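Board notes (copied after class):
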Amino acid sequence: MTRRRLLRVMVPLLVALVLTLIVARATQKPSPRLVPLVVAATAVPAGTELTGADLRLQRVSPAAVLPGSLSSEGAAQGQVAKVSLTAGSPVLADELEAASEAGLAYQIPRGDRALTVAVNGVSGVAGNLATGDHVDVLLTVGAQASQAGQPAITAQSTVIVQDVDVLSTGLAGAGGPSNGYALITLAVTPQQAATISLGQQQGSILLLLRAHGDQTPGAVEVRVGGIVP
């Protein structure tokens, strides 16, 4: 094939190819813009406090985003699921609630237990206790005469538990009881709970309010006749 004939054949083909590419690009639909969406990484039972392991972020078309959907895992972490979530389902804001609103069980530090004690105006620091305060528990046992086979008990006062968190305060009944007693719920370890419970059976307790941020030890025991070192 001569050079002139080759050009006569190739040039139209190249022009047709270029025109085809131009038309194809002009008619090609742009890729849809994707947006982040928070979904459940696994099946999550209702009442679960969500962590990073329960969530994952995936990118979807805006058309797939439901009202109330979340675009950041941080917006869901620490929240409590009010409904069960299936793996891969969107996590919606109205299906979550803050741990502080979900109930007392979500406010107890791990390893601790909630223990409620009854106090009056004196033992409850004149009504000045509030959620988040820290207190010591002082036990006072009155002197008791010896009984058959039992030794006498010397009057004494001892700090039996230190630096525990006040979870909540409240009245002992609807409208408040006539004797003015209130209920204070503390976050304590099982050992501290047993110590306080036993102490209440043996004597009376006072709550000692700590200064904010004070974590210094303050154990002391006083008996009739002086301070015990």
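Comment from the instructor: The radius of gyration is 35 Å. Confidence is low (pLDDT under 50) at residues 225-229.
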